[in-house]
Amino acid sequence: MTDTATTADTTIEELDTVAQRATDAAAGWSQTSPRERAAALVAAADALQGNADELIGIAADETGLSTARLTGELKRTAVQLRLFADVVVDGGYLDVRIDEADPDFVLGPRPDLRRFLVPVGPVLNFAASNFPFAFSIAGGDTAAALAAGCPVVVKAHQGHPRLSERTTEVVAEALESAGAPAGTLQVIFGRDAGVTLLKDERIKAGSFTGSIKAGRILADIAAARHAPIPFYGELGSVNPAFVTPAGLAEESDAIATGFVTSVAGSAGQLCTKPGFLFLPAEHGLGEIITSEAQKVPEHRMLYPGIARGYAQRRDAILSTRGITVLAEGTLRFDDEGQAWATPTIVSVTADQLEKHRENLLDEAFGPLAIVVEYTDEDELAPVADDLFEGNLTGTVHAGSGEDSEALRSLVRWLEGHTGRVLFGGWPTGVAVTPAMQHGGPYPATSNDAGTSVGTAAISRFMRAVTYQGAPQSLLPAPLRDDNPWGVPQQRAAAGESSDWGSAAS
């Protein structure tokens, strides 16, 4: 029994060729003008949508996700590429800063200084299992790195190898037809191949979406290299949601139905699934949660490895003393190891969660969640601080106009421990938009200095360079006074330093 269709792992000799092709492509791709690079990204988006029927068919066969879900995800992937095309043309992401030469600078004569961001070089992206388009070959990490001017090598996920191969063909052909150098986008197969390439000095940054265990291993490899490289891993998150008594009084039924819908979507195989819902004791939502969960039809899990891991976590939780089962759910395996699941939801008190934290707190990647009953709203922030590490999201359902010290304390805790704080709604569903933050403190990510969704994602694959006293003819285009690319330039004029500090008065 295997987890995937057979796909040959990339050999050592092939890896060397891949790394060299990416290195050779780096200079040309990084030097493309904004409009040329943007046009290539748009061409890739067009190619994805032009081949949508074929790609979605392969994805549905390999992952078990619905055609409707995959159609929306492919559209999201194309939109993301188009968004980054506009980011590239705008040029603000280059963060150009120019300090004019100033003989009267308050600390002594200042030379002409010009700073901007440049691509780091070839990026290795480890694709995710649960988003075969949006976090895979042409997904967010790839789009951000390509937009930054970095060639990308994607280590395909074993859960959808045929889709990975075909998507690479479609997107790479589109990029190269639009002028990108050969080798701007490539794919490799096999876990050992991914580890080997991550150690290759020609790779200058890494990105990953997957488990805490695998992500931490890769992050440590990246850090242990002779020349350590940045590694942006999205690892694990339980995304706690909190309902205040006032919030419960206003929207009890909607909270129950919305919670079950969020837990059950895509068989719970989403990094933003709310794994814990804190409700006031005697909330009265048990019956509606049970009823809504029992209405959910079974959904195939992504691949056998995911299903086996979910089965272990589900068994551990269901066997924990003191839990109340609201919806036992089902998990059915076939002869090939594929599995189909319906939601499992249990309830515990806050004290029981603390007592059995070793069994209950770890992420269950599948349609399972835990309702936690609390008695004192003032204890929400302290309890959360005791139980949870970093998360991608945290959600608050409060009453209209509610403003208490307990609520403020909870919000402050969420700001310090999550990347996205939601008021109302549910965290599943991540908008592809400039203000989105999809990241968070460890273990949500290995490096919370960036985001894997939204336009700020581009900064992860860039580094700063300053030119000092350089002649105009040798300056990169974004730093020149004639500004041929038309990018935003932040200038510090000569003579300003004598007034520093006056803005505070």
UniProtKB/TrEMBL annotation:
<dbReference type="Pfam" id="PF00171">
    <property type="entry name" value="Aldedh"/>
</dbReference>
<protein>
    <submittedName>
        <fullName>Aldehyde dehydrogenase (NADP(+))</fullName>
    </submittedName>
</protein>
<keyword id="KW-0560">Oxidoreductase</keyword>
<dbReference type="InterPro" id="IPR044151">
    <property type="entry name" value="ALDH_KGSADH"/>
</dbReference>
<feature type="domain" description="Aldehyde dehydrogenase">
    <location>
        <begin position="5"/>
        <end position="403"/>
    </location>
</feature>
<dbReference type="InterPro" id="IPR016162">
    <property type="entry name" value="Ald_DH_N"/>
</dbReference>
<dbReference type="InterPro" id="IPR016161">
    <property type="entry name" value="Ald_DH/histidinol_DH"/>
</dbReference>
<feature type="region of interest" description="Disordered">
    <location>
        <begin position="473"/>
        <end position="505"/>
    </location>
</feature>
<dbReference type="InterPro" id="IPR015590">
    <property type="entry name" value="Aldehyde_DH_dom"/>
</dbReference>
<dbReference type="InterPro" id="IPR016163">
    <property type="entry name" value="Ald_DH_C"/>
</dbReference>
<dbReference type="GO" id="GO:0016620">
    <property type="term" value="F:oxidoreductase activity, acting on the aldehyde or oxo group of donors, NAD or NADP as acceptor"/>
</dbReference>
<dbReference type="InterPro" id="IPR050740">
    <property type="entry name" value="Aldehyde_DH_Superfamily"/>
</dbReference>
